[in-house]
Design goal:
There is one protein chain. This protein is about 40% helix and about 20% strand. The model has no long low-confidence stretch (mean pLDDT about 95). The strands form two sheets. A six-stranded parallel beta sheet has the order 2-1-3-4-5-11, sandwiched between helices. Helix 1 packs parallel to helix 9. With about 300 residues, it is an alpha/beta fold. It starts with 17 loop residues before the first strand and ends in a 6-residue tail after the last helix. It contains ten helices and twelve strands. The structure holds beta-D-fucofuranose. The site of beta-D-fucofuranose has 13 residues, from helix 1 and strand 9.
């Protein structure tokens, strides 16, 4: 039995599908590219998109979803800023017979009849990949005393990517007690906050910092700016690994300032539109659609950069 059968209300074939999308905001290069990907793909697919920018506030996203329900859109998609607190509004969408697709980030909800499918990355695996790369890098570039002191810059508190990247990174390092996260601070995925939080860390941290793990490239790039102003050589005096693989990260790797970026693609628009069309064509949707991604160490940056699409 199709658990979403109750959602499938007949639509006349001539009318375009009406999609309401509630975005997180515009915190990072990743997010800007993701927004563009969604808008472009909707246009290309002939899907009528109402796009609302949540400006980093869950309450704005909830209000956006309520407005989509009021407008009686055919389908809602959104990228939940945080994992929890969505039950009520998703119940309302369900009661209105409007299906919901999770784009990029997942929710923490017991009742999984409240959303139809998830499209995005495996953030836990991204954290593991960052740690696995680090283990092999340190094996070849050991620290003077064998201790590896790590500073972590976290993304938005309560968001799926911040929670899972942190957890994945920690899980992989667990069997290696010489790798220690000595500081873990929040910089909300922003370049500016990465820069400013790193400055505070440098001012207050007396222990040697060997590694920076940033939950996204923007925060790493901000931190790089701070390290340079402090007369340090990012990528050399401090090993830096981050997530997303935006073009600017490749440029930083080519310049020798960043050591590795773990890919997380923001180009979810075409897949999202395809899933929406499949849905209204009556096809069964998989519960999770995970995008396939790579790890890019600095050695490959020059070769790979020309092929990068974001
Ligand atoms: O890594 C970060 C963005 O949810 C995967 O959000 C996304 C994350 C991405 O702000 O740059």
């Amino acid at each position: 039995v199709d658990p979403y059968a109750s959602f499938r209300h007949p639509r006349s074939n001539k009318e375009p599908i009406r999609l309401g999308f509630a975005q997180v905001g515009s915190e990072s290069r990743w997010r800007l590219t993701n927004t563009k990907s969604i808008k472009d793909a909707a246009r290309d697919a002939g899907i009528e998109l109402t796009f609302i920018d949540g400006q980093q506030k869950q309450e704005n996203q909830i209000a956006a979803i309520r407005s989509f329900i009021k407008q009686k859109v055919d389908i809602i998609a959104f990228s939940p800023i945080v994992e929890s607190g969505w039950e009520e509004v998703l119940q309302e969408a369900k009661a209105a017979g409007i299906p919901v697709i999770l784009s990029d980030r997942e929710v923490d909800i017991k009742d999984d009849s409240l959303w139809a499918t998830f499209i995005g990355s495996d953030f836990l695996e991204e954290g593991r990949r960052a740690a696995r790369w680090l283990l092999s890098y340190i094996e070849h570039h050991p620290t003077p005393d064998g201790q590896v002191n790590i500073v972590e810059l976290q993304g938005t508190v309560g968001s799926a990517p911040a929670i899972d990247r942190k957890r994945g990174f920690e899980l992989t390092l667990e069997p290696h007690p010489e790798f220690r996260i000595i500081r873990s601070e929040i910089a909300n995925f922003y370049f500016d906050q990465g820069r400013d939080v790193m400055k505070k860390i440098l001012e207050t941290e007396k222990r040697r910092i060997d590694v920076l793990f940033a939950h996204n490239d923007d925060m790493a790039l901000g931190a790089i700016q701070t390290l340079e102003s402090a007369g340090l050589r990012p990528g050399k005096d401090m090993v830096i690994v981050s997530v997303d693989a935006v073009k600017e990260a490749f440029q930083a790797m080519i310049a020798g300032k960043l050591n590795c970026t773990v890919e997380c693609t923001p180009l979810l628009g075409p897949q999202l539109m395809k899933v929406i069309q499949d849905y209204f064509d009556g096809k069964e949707l998989p519960t999770r659609i995970i995008t396939s991604e790579e790890v890019f160490p600095a050695e490959v940056a020059r070769t790979v950069l020309p092929k990068r699409r974001y």
